[in-house]
Design a protein that fits this description.
177 residues, mainly alpha, 8 helices, 69% helix, elongated
């Protein structure tokens, strides 16, 4: 196409070949980008990307109830896994925070212990009397280089039986006196 053909096409809307082009250049009211539209009745003034975004938003609004129902069903079916992930995330986040803010963590821990002293003592008492895993692991880890979380469950069961026998011996000695 020559420059004269391009000039005549832009002025008349008819290219040099003689075929009419029924297209309009429009400006999208949302994003301001010029785009081509066919000349039609009830033509959408928005560009394709903006119209797709609006359609997606409308679809999300229309299907909100279905989405909420399917999410609730998923949460109900996978509750234990979701809770485990949440606990693990909180645990790692708190450990990182404690490492970053050791003095603040110490102050907050002491304040909590002081505020909830009775509840914490009651919990320790029930763990000790019932020989809970936490109590037994703490007993095993007390004079060891292992942390309570590193102690295997069979060893916990053996120590629990050992503590039961010790309590039974102590009870029989006190009742004999």
């Amino acid at each position: 196409m020559t420059t004269s053909a391009i000039d005549s096409a832009s002025q008349t809307g008819v290219p040099a070949g003689g075929h009419y082009v029924h297209r309009l250049v429009r400006v999208c009211p949302d994003c301001g980008v010029e785009h081509m539209k066919r000349k039609q009745k009830n033509v959408n003034p928005r560009c394709f990307k903006c119209q797709r975004r609006i359609n997606q938003k409308n679809s999300e609004i229309r299907n909100a109830d279905k989405r909420r129902a399917s999410q609730a069903k998923y949460r109900e079916e996978n509750r234990t896994a979701i809770n485990a992930r949440s606990r693990e995330f909180k645990r790692t986040w708190m450990n990182e925070w404690r490492k970053a803010n050791p003095t603040t963590a110490l102050i907050r821990g002491r304040a909590f212990a002081q505020k909830h002293r009775d509840r914490l003592l009651q919990r320790q008492r029930t763990e000790r009397e019932g020989l809970s895993d936490t109590y037994v692991k703490e007993q095993l880890a007390r004079y060891s280089i292992l942390r309570p979380s590193e102690i295997p469950q069979p060893l916990v069961a053996l120590k629990r039986e050992h503590l039961k026998l010790k309590r039974l011996c102590k009870k029989s000695r006190t009742s004999a006196n």
